[in-house]
Specification:
Keywords: Cell membrane, Membrane, Transmembrane, Transmembrane helix, Transport. With 106 residues, the protein is an all-alpha fold. The chain has one domain. The protein has four helices and no strands. The longest helix has 24 residues. The radius of gyration is 15 Å and the shape is flat.
Length: 106
């Protein structure tokens, strides 16, 4: 169950990271409220996952999911760069996430 909590926490991290763009500096009330709610849910789920998962592994995977998801949505929603080197670097992050999951004792 901890891995499910961690995956969901990572997805909510993507939500608040992308949500920050839509708050326009916290001047838009609805996007701001949704962003703050996503932050709270993400941290709550991370906390649940940390009950059984190693801190370093869980944190690295949480931020990795957030990073990769945010980059993908940045490309899809905001037309950010799809340079090959940039995508290769994101691939390295994915490889790191998979590697950490494979060597985790849980």
């Amino acid at each position: 169950m901890a891995w499910i909590y961690l995956a969901l926490a990572g997805l909510f991290e993507v939500g608040w990271a992308v949500g920050l763009k839509f708050t326009e500096g916290f001047t838009r009330p609805v996007p701001t409220a949704l962003t703050v709610a996503s932050m709270a849910v993400s941290l709550f789920l991370l906390g649940l996952a940390l009950k059984t998962l190693p801190l370093g592994t869980a944190y690295a995977i949480w931020t990795g999911i957030g990073t990769v998801g945010t980059v993908i949505l940045g490309i899809a929603l905001f037309g950010e760069s799809t340079q090959v080197l940039r995508l290769a670097c994101i691939g390295l992050i994915v490889a790191g996430i998979v590697g950490l999951k494979l060597v985790s004792p849980e």
